[in-house]
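TICKET: design request
STATUS: open
ATTACHED STRUCTURE:
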């Protein structure tokens, strides 16, 4: 049986210069590229000067379709809309199915918003808790995890909910608990906010546009 390979390819989270030469070589060599949104990835490929067959694979793609794709091709790449796949996206399901079909699965590492934020937070990161995107409903359990955690915690938040989330945390956490909020990492309007919840909330309220990573120091 011909060897089948799935490449999990990290792409820039904003700054195009963060694409690796290995990622470029891999994108050129694969048969087909699976991606969350073909429009987003198509724009990236256009900027990179790469033409490649793309197939949409998102959180609602069922297992049967994923299996059909994997059985049809032998040399496949997967990218998320931005950053490292498998972090708060459908990549884990794809990897599980590919593994069951005896694919060789190869990571092509690169940019990641959560590790970029952790690298500049200044908090202990020998152990940390990553919570992905906070749930739209039933946040209280997650808030309690953050409140009681002895480890640095991190999560993603949207521009539509960042102020409400920070206001909730202000009412929950001790005034001395420190946090770092990263807005639009690696992009033109990248901004880093530091302080306690009240200080960061006051600053973020004036600049709510963009994607946010929130890092909170443990107790």
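STATUS: resolved
RESOLUTION: sequence designed for all positions
ATTACHED SEQUENCE:
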């Amino acid at each position: 049986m011909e060897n089948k390979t799935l490449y999990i390819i990290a792409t820039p989270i904003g700054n195009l210069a963060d694409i690796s030469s290995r990622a470029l070589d891999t994108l050129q060599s694969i048969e087909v590229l699976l991606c969350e949104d073909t429009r987003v990835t198509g724009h990236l490929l256009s900027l990179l000067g790469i033409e490649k067959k793309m197939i949409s694979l998102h959180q609602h793609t069922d297992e049967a379709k994923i299996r059909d794709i994997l059985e049809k091709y032998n040399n496949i790449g997967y990218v998320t809309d931005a950053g490292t796949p498998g972090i708060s996206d459908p990549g884990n399901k794809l990897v599980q199915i590919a593994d069951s079909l005896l694919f060789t699965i190869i990571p092509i590492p690169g940019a990641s918003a959560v590790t970029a934020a952790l690298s500049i937070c200044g908090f202990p990161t020998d152990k940390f808790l990553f919570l992905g995107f906070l749930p739209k409903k039933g946040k209280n359990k997650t808030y309690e995890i953050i409140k009681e955690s002895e480890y640095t915690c991190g999560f993603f938040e949207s521009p539509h909910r960042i102020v409400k989330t920070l206001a909730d945390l202000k009412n929950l956490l001790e005034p001395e608990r420190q946090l770092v909020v990263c807005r639009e990492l690696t992009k033109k309007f990248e901004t880093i906010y530091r302080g306690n919840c009240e200080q960061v909330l006051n600053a973020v309220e004036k600049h709510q546009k963009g994607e946010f990573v929130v890092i909170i120091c443990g107790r």
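CLOSING REMARK: The first strand starts at residue 5 and ends at 9. Residues 38-48 form the longest helix (11 residues).
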